[in-house]
Design goal:
4-stranded antiparallel β-sheet; Immunoglobulin-like; alpha+beta
């Protein structure tokens, strides 16, 4: 098709949203007779035969033990069959992991496990158990209702720029990260940064240091983002870890990870077409972001991840490219069924902590090109943000 060739030859790399980014390991629910929870237990990855306990949640509190299992390998993999149970669960992991920052092993006792919570376990679901999910459990304040679990998981995911439930981290090695999604890379590196923070924290044992680091992180997280003190400490630990001789991830540049935006909050804006767009099948434009506002990108080619740019459901299957450079998102869209007047996409931006999300009027749109099926430019069509 002429339009596809035109945009492919432009500065954009045309790709579908599924190929352009987004997290892996989406949590799903099923309708089978048995509920099975699988995942990865990692600080660094818990070693084989670490203990995994899965508990029911009753009236907003941890209830009966539904299943006990062991990690099946040194990557922290686990699977627990909960039988006919459906509902919220808390998963607790204890055992030994290899620390990314020190290279040594750390034992997490059963009395002070790392936890994760899920608002609904039904059918086949995936749940990683990590220090970030532990932070989310702490942020529930002991209220383990489905609503509170969801809110806490969402908050911590926002703070660290990765879906802490729907993304499975990988082993913190260059080989494992080379085949991972950007979200998996960011998650894995975030856990390594927690190890770096723990190595710099006080405590009599490795686990004491970990718990103290998590306490400081948790105290610095709220609905308004990270405090400046905790954000500075986290970014400093990120810098220190990539320079750490024990760093086996192959990551040596902090700008290659979305963690440089950790601590900020997000706000979503809607992109719409105005004017006579009935014949439009291709759009290209530049969206200039307000100062300090950013989006999540892939470290390899600066393409904007699906967590930051998503088409409306009506445009599922459209070819989309979105690339970020120097405060500007350049977008190209090809939709053979056409692009209608009205909302067509959502852009979710990172807003610096302690600042007010800018109004839509603070954004600007330029270099708009709208084409019909024969590559003829269409006039009187504008891209708006609100």
């Amino acid at each position: 098709m002429k339009i596809l060739k035109l945009l492919a030859a432009s500065s954009l790399l045309i790709c579908t949203l599924s190929a352009c980014g987004g997290g892996g390991g989406d949590t799903t629910t099923g309708g089978g007779s048995s509920t099975v929870v699988t995942g990865m237990a990692t600080k660094g990855p818990f070693l084989k035969d670490s203990t995994v306990n899965v508990y029911a949640v009753v009236n907003g509190a941890k209830g009966t033990l539904l299943a006990q299992t062991k990690t099946s390998d040194d990557n922290g993999s686990y699977s627990a069959d909960l039988g006919s149970y459906t509902g919220p669960v808390v998963v607790e992991v204890s055992g030994t992991y290899q620390d990314e920052a020190t290279g040594g092993t750390v034992t997490v006792p059963e009395a002070a496990p790392i936890r994760a919570a899920l608002p609904l376990a039904q059918g086949s679901v995936t749940l990683p158990v990590t220090p970030l999910t532990e932070l989310a459990v702490q942020k529930t304040g002991g209220d383990l209702t489905a609503a509170a679990i969801t809110a806490a998981n969402t908050l911590v995911s926002e703070i660290f720029k990765v879906d802490i439930v729907a993304t499975l981290p990988v082993a913190p090695t260059a080989a494992a990260l080379s085949g991972a999604t950007q979200a998996q890379k960011d998650y894995t590196l975030a856990l390594a940064v927690v190890s770096q923070l723990a190595s710099e924290a006080g405590g009599a044992s490795g686990n004491d240091k970990l718990q103290n680091a998590l306490t400081e992180l948790g105290q610095g997280i709220s609905a308004t983002g990270m405090t400046s003190t905790v954000s500075t400490a986290f970014q400093g630990a990120l810098t220190n870890f990539v320079a750490n001789p024990n760093n086996q991830t192959g990551v040596s540049d902090t700008t290659s990870t979305g963690l440089v935006h950790a601590g900020t909050l997000t706000k979503s804006y809607t992109l719409s077409l105005a004017g006579n767009a009935s014949a439009a099948q291709a759009i290209q434009f530049d969206l200039v972001l307000p100062q300090g506002v950013t989006v999540n990108t892939d470290s390899l080619d600066s393409s904007v991840l699906a967590s930051s740019f998503a088409m409306q459901q009506a445009y599922t299957g459209a070819l989309v490219a979105a690339r970020y450079s120097s405060g500007t998102v350049t977008v190209g869209i090809v939709s053979t069924p056409g692009v209608s007047t009205g909302a067509f996409a959502t852009i979710t931006c990172n807003i610096p902590a302690g600042t007010t999300a800018p109004a839509a009027s603070a954004f600007s749109v330029s270099n708009v090109t709208v084409l019909d099926a024969s590559e003829n430019p269409l006039s009187g069509v504008a891209v708006q943000i609100n």
